[in-house]
Amino acid sequence: xxxxxxxxxxxxxxxxxxxxxxxxxxxxxxxxxxxxxxxxxxxxxxxxxxxxxxxxxxxxxxxxxxxxxxxxxxx
Length: 75
Fold this sequence. Notes:
- Strand 1, helix 1 (16-28) and strand 2 form a beta-alpha-beta unit.
- The two termini are 20 Å apart.
- This protein has helices at residues 16-28, 60-71; strands at residues 2-7, 34-39.
- By secondary structure, the protein is an alpha+beta fold.
- Strands 1-2 form a two-stranded parallel sheet.
């Protein structure tokens, strides 16, 4: 089995990286699992540079993505 753990925060002082690493470590203890940790900060996605509510011009697809995320029961 292969698992990917995603740390999705890029903010200064972020705490979620500790949770991501904990989950990664726990999954890695299982010899039947292949685990990869992806840190969004390392990918430099432009959409992650600023919170949407602070952008002067919000791309249409960003609004669509945000609405889909808001409508989801789990991610």
